[in-house]
Amino acid sequence: MTTYRFLDGMGQVVTEAAFDAHADALAWAAGDDDLEEVQRVEYLGPEGDWRWAGPLLG
User: Which pTM value belongs to this model?
Assistant: First the structure.
């Protein structure tokens, strides 16, 4: 499992969650009406740094 954080337009963390794959995290963020303000998804890389997970689709 990988830790993901979901950020708003100002770069503030809206929530964090763990997923098995980038696609699952991105689909969850794009499909959840409670996460409308999320504009960016990042994951915790192996070196402890936050990395961009990919574009939100939806």
Answer: 0.88
pLDDT of residue 56: 80
User: Helix (H, G, I), strand (E, B), or coil: what is residue 19?
Assistant: strand
26: Cβ contacts below 8 Å, ≥ 6 apart: 41, 53, 54, 55, 56, 57
Token pair in block for residue 22? 């980038």
Q: Of the candidates 20, 40, 18, which has an alpha carbon nearest to the alpha carbon of residue 29?
A: 40
Distance CA 58, CA 53 (A): 15
| Residue 11 predicted with pLDDT over 70 | yes
